[in-house]
Design goal:
Number of helices: 14
Order of helices and strands: HHEEEEHHEEEHEHHEHEHEHHEHEHH
Distance between the termini: 66 Å
Strand order of the largest sheet: 10-9-8-5-4-13-12-11
Helix content: 40-55%
Radius of gyration: 23 Å
Structural class: alpha/beta
Strand content: 5-15%
Shape: globular
């Protein structure tokens, strides 16, 4: 008996210790299932909907999340950024779900994927889920950064099966279309190694963007890009009927649209092979996207003239969403450059405020202006990833307050009691 009792108590102690450690820390799968409950975002006419109520968005861009998640020493920045965004009441973050052929490539070559980088994207999605932030994920880049359509064309050309070395062959070459469809299918059917959920079944993904800022300058009529959008949007929806889909447009009016001469920033904007109305009307496109970069679009305008243009630009597209498209209009990028002559941070604040105010007024009237995502947010010690638009939002209190106030204004339209606890607490603080 003494021997039995002598063994019994140490065993109980060990089991209790193991149980305590497990309950305190658990594994990643347990930890990631303690996040706020999310349901799919849907669309009802010109409004995004969540749980049967309108959903208006205040959010941001951090394109770099997957790239940083692939590196152990940089991975903590992903959690820090998503946690900070959640504490600001931001509900959607836009990021890249692509990296083609370069450093930390997700797609190393056509149909060949780096599992280490795919697990990095798994981590980003799981972190977003844990913090109650939804992700708008872009599938390919029109620009050369992170591979983009240039890399797809290069792959086909190097294999001797490409029709042309022109970057725009991405849109019409059958081989390249096949490459892209394979990538889309692999991405959408990916089973997250952390959550166990296929991407197409994960409500923490807000939606998909076919391409970041598509342009097809070799066909200014727009027919080539239009055919590509029609084909690829139908293909995405054949695999994933849960998520919303957008093109990724900048918002320029095409050569046959009457608004090209009154609303486009300059004449060049109408001959890029895109058309905001025509492209966004495609059946399988759920919402329209628009970008706002007056610093890049104009060379000689004053600050006041740029602010005036931004107001006209936004109101024009909200009107289009309301009357022409009957779809939400989502301003998925907006930024103000610090390289402007005589730049002042107060100008950037005013630029932000003008955009946030227009979104709020549209939401209050239940119009098509569904939200906006600032370009772009970082955490500290990331200057090498900055461009002339990026900011660490909490470094300037007035800027931080603009974004948190917007989060609460939009939340109150929906009902604070329906928001997650972090947002409820934030908004209670702003009332005091």
């Amino acid at each position: 008996m003494m021997t039995g009792n002598g063994l019994f108590y140490p065993i109980v102690g060990i089991v209790s210790c193991v149980a305590f450690i497990y309950m305190s820390f658990g594994d990643l799968r347990v930890t990631y299932h303690r996040e706020p409950e999310l349901t799919f975002v849907t669309r009802n006419g010109t409004q995004f909907m969540v749980d049967g109520r309108p959903f208006y968005i205040n959010g941001w861009n951090s394109f770099w999340l997957m790239d940083h998640s692939a590196e152990e020493d940089r991975r903590p920045r992903v959690r820090a950024m998503l946690e900070a965004g959640a504490k600001m009441g931001l509900t959607v973050c836009r990021a890249w779900a692509f990296n083609d052929g370069g450093y930390n490539a997700l797609q190393v070559s056509p149909g060949q994927f780096d599992e280490r980088v795919f697990k990095a994207l798994d981590h980003v999605i799981a972190e977003a889920r844990q913090h109650g932030v939804r992700l708008l994920l872009s599938i390919v880049n029109n620009l050369k950064a992170y591979g983009g359509k240039t890399q797809y064309v290069k792959w086909a050309w190097e294999e001797g099966i490409g029709l042309s070395s022109s970057n725009d062959s991405f849109f019409f070459d059958p081989t390249i279309r096949r490459y892209f469809k394979n990538y889309v299918k692999t991405l959408l059917t990916r089973k997250n190694t952390i959550t166990g959920i296929e991407y197409r079944n994960d409500p923490s993904i807000f939606g998909w963007e076919l391409m970041n800022e598509p342009r097809c300058v070799s066909d200014p009529s727009g027919d080539t890009l239009q055919e590509w959008i029609e084909e690829m949007s139908a293909f995405v929806k054949s695999i994933d009927k849960n998520h919303l889909l957008t093109v990724g447009l900048e918002g320029f009016y095409g050569p046959t649209n009457p608004k090209r001469s009154t609303m486009n920033p300059e004449n060049w904007a109408s001959i890029l092979g895109t058309d905001f109305i025509r492209n966004s009307k495609v059946q399988h496109i759920d919402f329209a996207s628009v970008h706002i970069y007056p610093d890049h679009w104009f060379q000689h305008q004053t600050f006041e003239e740029k602010v005036t243009f931004v107001s006209k630009w936004m109101l024009s597209h909200i009107e289009d969403g309301q009357h022409e498209l009957s779809k939400p209009v989502f301003f998925t990028e907006y930024g103000f450059s610090n390289l402007n002559k005589d730049f002042q941070p107060s100008q950037r604040d005013r630029f932000y405020k003008s955009i946030l105010d227009i979104i709020y007024k549209s939401a209050k009237r239940k119009r098509a202006g569904a939200g906006a995502l600032v370009w772009q947010f970082f955490v500290e010690e990331m200057e090498e990833f900055n461009d002339d638009f990026g900011i660490v939002p909490w470094e300037r209190p007035s800027t931080y307050r603009y974004f948190t106030d917007q989060s609460c204004r939009l939340a109150r339209l929906r009902g604070i009691h329906r928001q997650n606890q972090i947002l409820r607490e934030l908004c209670l603080q702003t009332e005091n």
